[in-house]
Design brief:
Shape: rod-shaped
Largest sheet: none
Low-confidence stretches: none
Mean pLDDT: 81
Strand content: under 5%
Distance between the termini: 95 Å
Helix content: 55-70%
Number of strands: 0
């Protein structure tokens, strides 16, 4: 039984020290991410075709009704 315990201690020690000696870094926890879902709102209709501030001014003047 003592031989098994010694063998276990040696294995645990080697498992802990070998990556440091060999220069390996432990695998980092990587958070997986995905693109956010597309949210459609009333602003999408309002801003349809507007790419620049000039486009917005032209749309405001064209649809004001004044």
């Amino acid at each position: 039984m003592a031989m098994r315990t010694q063998l276990l201690v040696v294995c645990v020690f080697l498992n802990a020290i070998l990556p440091c000696v060999l220069g390996e870094e432990p695998a980092a926890d990587v958070r997986r991410r995905s693109d956010p879902p597309v949210i459609r709102s009333s602003w999408d209709d309002l801003l349809d075709g507007v790419k620049t501030p000039g486009d917005w001014k032209q749309r405001k003047v064209g649809s004001s009704g004044f």
